[in-house]
Write a structure and sequence with these properties.
Layout lengths: L9 H5 L24 H10 L6 H6 L12 H6 L5 H24 L1 E6 L6 H10 L2 H4 L4 E5 L2 E13 L2 E12 L3 E8 L11 E7 L11 E3 L4 H26 L2
Antiparallel strand pairs: 1-2, 2-3, 3-4, 5-6, 6-7
Helix pairs in contact: 5-8
Length: 249
């Protein structure tokens, strides 16, 4: 026989437990480096979000901070998190931690330097001194983050007498459009230790982007800078799929 659902009375509603949304979690997420957490740190975090009852199970299964973002709903069930609300809360808070970690990695400065003004040896130095080049032009500036390579270059606007007035233009090159990085040393007659190492950044030709002028760095630094660029590109590619997954949560 069919049963008719009974409407809840005020007494029924009053007897229900009340759970309020979590408002804070260990301060600002972007300031928390969960990847460095031990099992004890994870236990403290669980307590801070009201799920300290699962701390022992997480510790028994050796769940450290760097493993939190790979946990799935099935893993949480095996860890004894049986209520859907608790699992949803955990997945939500883990996603927040991961987004904060990715944000820090994307915007931290990995390398920063000025481009060389004198990069062609002694003759280049003498010529630029005669034409007052260092008086009129600041050096180019390079900054590498986990998301982009920023190149600040001179933009000649107009001449005024023997010198010139220049403005600066900063170009942000997303690491995802860089197809390759190479480096070499630019030999010069009468080197005098002031010739440059050249770092060449090749962009994805299918994107139709304007080429990047070679980076002119201190002699001996070219290979190191190229390695840092390649490592940053590889890390950005590794983080991208996980970030897309977390953004959907």
């Amino acid at each position: 026989a069919a049963t008719t659902a009974r409407r809840a009375t005020k007494a029924d509603l009053a007897s229900l437990p009340e759970y309020k949304p979590l408002k804070t979690i260990l301060g600002h997420d972007e300031d928390v480096d969960a990847a460095e957490w031990s099992t004890l740190d994870v236990a403290n975090w669980l307590e801070s979000i009201g799920l300290g009852c699962f701390a022992k199970r997480f510790a028994e299964h050796k769940i450290t901070g760097d493993l939190l973002h790979v946990l799935t709903e099935d893993h949480l069930k095996e860890l004894g998190v049986s209520l859907i609300g608790d699992r949803a809360l955990l997945m939500h808070q883990i996603a927040r931690l991961w987004r904060g970690a990715v944000h820090r990695r994307r915007f931290r400065t990995i390398w920063e330097a000025d481009g060389l003004v004198y990069h062609g040896g002694c003759f280049d130095w003498c010529f630029k001194q005669m034409v007052c080049h260092p008086c009129c032009n600041d050096p180019d500036h390079y900054r590498l983050t986990g998301a982009a390579l920023y190149v600040t270059e001179r933009d000649l606007k107009r001449h005024k007498g023997a010198c010139c007035q220049t403005s600066k233009h900063t170009r942000a090159i997303d690491l995802s459009v860089i197809a390759g990085v190479s480096d070499f040393h630019r030999n010069a007659v009468c080197d005098c230790c002031c010739s440059a190492d050249v770092v060449v950044v090749d962009l994805d030709k299918e994107k139709g982007l304007e080429p990047v002028d070679p980076l002119l760095v201190t002699k001996g630094d070219g290979h190191v800078v190229a390695q840092k660029l390649r490592a940053a590109i590889e890390e950005a590619q590794t983080l991208a799929p996980g970030m897309q997954h977390m953004l959907r949560m």
